[in-house]
Amino acid sequence: MKKLPYLFVLLLVSFLTFNCSSSTDDLVEDEQEETPTTPEPEEDKEPEGETDPEEENDNGELNPNLAPSENFDLSTWNLSVPVNNGNGTALNISVATLNNGYEDDVFFYTADDGGMVFKCPNEGYKTSTNTSYTRVELREMLRGTNTGIPTQGVTKNNWVFGTAPNADINAAYGYDGEMTATLAVNHVTTTGTNSHIGRVIVGQIHANDDEPVRIYYRKLPNNELGSIYFAHEPTDGNGSEQWHELIGSRSNSASNPSDGIALNEKFSYKIHVEGDALTVTISREGKVDVSKTVDMTNSGFNVGGQYMYFKAGVYNQNNTGDDNDYVQATFYALEKSHTTL
User: Fold this and answer.
1) Of 155, 225, 240, 309, whose CB is crowded by the most CB atoms within 10 A?
2) DSSP characters for 283-302?
3) Each residue of 171-203: pLDDT tens digit?
4) Fold for domain 71-339?
């Protein structure tokens, strides 16, 4: 009779020990589900084992699986694409939309090598009724997503030259500036009138109504290599553009430039403005830089009310060729800076 209580105690202890152990295992299992060793990909979380895209960008690497705004700093740019915005002019992609992973399979997307592709056909909607050509082009927007700042005028959205009046320097985002880009032109137009074939603008400074600089790449159909030249347009309104050839000729009948740039060949340009001095430089690996400086003292940009912004991409310079003929360039680097007070 005295053994029964003893056996009963043993059974009771075993039963309690088993239940306590099971509860602990369930708790550990729940913790593993909440913080799994290899978490499932979520909208705002990268799976473990993958490199952080921001770290890749910091190392200068381009990821073909990311949108352009995730490979490049586009936080102060918007984009024009040649589709109808509903009012008969080109669609403007805002800074916020552009930096929310925007891509377009036809006009603006990431290439297989991670580059940022701009593609623009001859036919399409234009940015205004005063514009003759189509474009897929970034426009500098120094206000970022602060839409309370006007886009035009001497405001914190734009910059001025360092020789502008002090009042304008104080009112603008900053003064003077530099934009550098590394790119390859992949395709130029091959149809249309002789004066339009094969030319595309890949970088600009735009002012109120004129362009202190427009950089052209041009390759004629019978040439293997292309030329680089730029235009400087003073504000006198007389159409007195100044043309400066850097590599090859801008002639409509130019022969193959001996030191020209082939389609798909990478090169870099730099636009540097300091006061009234505008310098354009073209760089290629293994070759001597080519540059030209323009004195803008008498160009009319150093007076009150003149404001500036950079542009980059492809500005098609052919409106006479086949509708589906096109220009295309892939950018591998794009940076800019200004002096601020």
Assistant:
1) 309
2) E-TTS--EEEEEE-TTSS-S
3) 999 999 999 999 999 999 999 999 999 999 999
4) Jelly Rolls (2.60.120)
